[in-house]
Design brief:
The protein has about 450 residues and is α/β, with parallel strands linked by helices. The protein is built from twelve helices and 17 strands. The chain has two domains: about 5-225, 3-Layer(aba) Sandwich (Rossmann fold); about 240-440, 3-Layer(aba) Sandwich (Rossmann fold), CATH 3.40.50. The chain is about 30% helix and about 20% strand. Strands 3-1-2-4-5-8-7-6 form an eight-stranded mixed beta sheet, sandwiched between helices. A seven-stranded mixed beta sheet has the order 10-9-11-12-17-16-13, sandwiched between helices. Strands 14-15 form a two-stranded antiparallel sheet.
Length: about 450
């Protein structure tokens, strides 16, 4: 088994970041920028007064308990691969609250490809995709919408100025990121040569501080949240039940693993309606799609339905089907994509805000005001009138969309960066949407 080098960045409050690299005899450039992390941590200490230390250990010595080492930093220039045992170990580490950062040294394409391939093997159930501009990682300390790259980035074929970070997100927490272009050389303090495909120093510093700030905040939340909640339905058979389908699409289609199941359970317990729901997961191409009364869409990032998927969804809606969608964590990337897809599918049926006096806000719960997450409250107030968007088809709303996150509220563990409803508001409003879906 290959031995990997790991460098520990120890925070005095028991947070530890780790830097994983191949040994020098396997990868002679594993430590090409020896001062990168030290300089980044100096910046972090100046900004938030946090004191780190650094050690070097092997990956075999990595403690899978994120309490002892919350961040793994892996950087290099060449192809690499993990063993099956290492993948299993790293997956447990990340799911338990740790975060892994892959840095393509000087924008190395072989390293970048290897990182993507390894994360696909570690998380076959979660797609690695480029993080959209509203991801909280780009706003955790600095607002980073544009960055300065060296000229080598444009020579690689990329012409934009947006930061390029890919990520794997599980339960509203991005557990692994891959930087397409080099960050470390900008942290190291040396000259960033024109031929490098890398961030210039100031941009690299801002991105680095944001990454560590995001990882620290999310780690604190992961300790306290109930995101690991496993919902188990005691009903073993779905006979006689009404199916709700969560739509599987090409992208981050499953942001929470228990949220909708919890909502369905509370609805069944609260109402006297002789309807029981069971949650299933299907693609729009599934032949049984037209046998279910409601489709559920959610996500964080941009996505696009294929032509055949769009045709199927249009047919489903025009034949009386109902779609409930929510932008998990209130993320604009998903909202924009969802609205664009529906506009393409139903060009003659615009999406508009559902009026405040509509029955969807009053039955079975009177939901005139709801509490919101701290991140949303900072932009509005701690209590707001609920906001739902809808598309009318044949006199009823065939599509109901929430631009604010709800699933985290159903699980009683909204992310610290979420723009959404709190637990009670999300449950009450969600129950109303279910009631509307089955009574129209």
């Amino acid at each position: 088994m290959k031995t990997l080098k790991v460098c520990y960045l120890c925070l005095i409050v028991l947070l530890v970041a780790i830097r994983a690299q191949a040994q020098a005899n396997e990868n002679p450039r594993w430590n090409a920028t020896p001062d990168d992390i030290n300089n980044l941590l100096k910046s972090l200490k100046q900004l938030v007064d946090v004191n780190y230390q650094m050690e070097i250990k092997s990956l075999g010595e990595l403690d899978v308990n994120p309490e002892n080492n919350p961040i793994v930093y892996y950087s290099g220039h060449y192809n690499f691969s993990f063993s099956d045992d290492q993948r299993t170990k790293l997956k447990k580490y990340m799911l338990d609250g740790g975060m892994m950062i892959f840095n393509a040294g000087l924008g190395s394409a072989p390293f970048y490809r290897s990182a993507k391939e390894e994360l696909a093997k570690i998380f076959p159930e979660a797609q690695l995709q480029r993080l959209s501009s509203d991801h909280p990682l780009f706003h955790a300390y600095y607002d980073v919408g544009r960055v300065e790259y060296s000229s080598g980035v444009s020579k690689s074929g990329f012409k934009g100025q947006e930061p390029w970070i890919d990520g794997v997100t599980m339960n509203c927490r991005t557990v692994a990121i891959v930087s397409r272009f080099g960050l470390a050389v900008g942290w190291d303090g040396g000259e960033v040569l024109a031929e490098y495909a890398a961030y210039m120093p100031e941009s690299a510093q801002k991105m680095g501080v944001n990454i560590l700030s995001y990882a620290t905040a999310q780690r604190g939340w992961a300790k306290e949240s109930t995101a690991a909640l496993q919902f188990v339905d005691a009903v073993k058979s779905s006979a006689g039940m009404l199916g709700v389908v969560q739509v599987v699409y090409d992208g981050e289609w499953k942001t929470r693993h228990a949220g909708m199941s919890i909502l369905l359970k509370t609805f069944n317990s609260k109402t006297d309606v002789p309807v029981k729901f069971v949650l299933k997961e299907k693609k729009l191409s599934d032949p049984s799609l037209f046998d279910v009364p409601m489709l559920y869409f959610t996500g964080h990032e941009n996505f696009r339905l294929s032509k055949s998927e769009a045709v199927r969804l249009r047919e489903y809606l025009l034949n009386g089907g109902f779609v409930f969608a929510e932008a998990c964590c209130g993320r604009k990337g998903f909202e924009l994509s969802f609205r664009q897809q529906l506009s393409r599918i139903l060009p003659d049926h615009p999406m508009r805000e559902i009026p405040g006096d509509h029955m969807i806000y009053s039955f079975p719960n009177n939901v005139s005001n709801v509490g919101v997450t701290p991140a949303l409250a900072a932009q509005t107030s701690s209590s707001i009138r609920p906001k739902l968007m809808g598309i009318e088809i044949n006199g009823y709303y065939g599509v109901v969309f929430s631009p604010y996150g709800m699933a985290g509220g159903w699980e009683m563990s909204q992310s610290p960066y979420a723009h959404g409803y709190n637990a009670s508001g999300a449950l009450l409003l969600g129950q109303n949407i279910l009631m509307y879906a089955i009574t129209q």
